[in-house]
Fold:
Amino acid sequence: MNQNAFHKLSYGVYVVSTWDNGRPTGCTANSAMQITASPATIAVSINHNNYTNRCISETGKFAISILAEDSEPSIIGNFGFQSGRETDKFSKVKYSVEDYMPVVSDSCAYIVCEVIDKMETATHTVFLGEVKGAEVFGDRDAMTYAYYHKVIKGKSPKNAPTYIPDEEETKGEDGEVRRFKCEVCGYIYEGGELPADFKCPVCGMGTDKFREI
Structure:
């Protein structure tokens, strides 16, 4: 089975957020889709291990911030590669409260939903939400999952529905271009020597977390 076929499915890149006893929290997601038009309903898939899953179950509400192609890449790492149990993710990201829910400001649109049903799988909960509010922020193109992989050169967190383990990688023979991979988020740096003060644009890790591939 060639799991790369899954990458041909159409996905976006989102931050799914909710409240944790009055504190905003959330996680990166790429599985969100509109189910019906009237009433408008949206489904999102959240891993059981994500703290956001529990918080959505408790509040019965969630918001989807739709990231744009020009959104700051570190937003993805901030919400995707650390847990809201130990980290206040929104302390590092500008946000606003829209329709009573926390929304990432650096996004191209948001949708706020009230949970009306859910389906449990072995690893994820699929929350079905009725749309209670939505807005578009400017004329910006939404980031696709393909854009995230090809342009930003990131990979999915292990809790993502679309996570695929790395295949064995080997060094190329071209001595001019070197490639270094972030072992936390999978970002690929291409160029010459990795600068000593380089920080991963996705997860913010330093050079000690990079290995040459």
In short: The chain is about 10% helix and 35% strand.
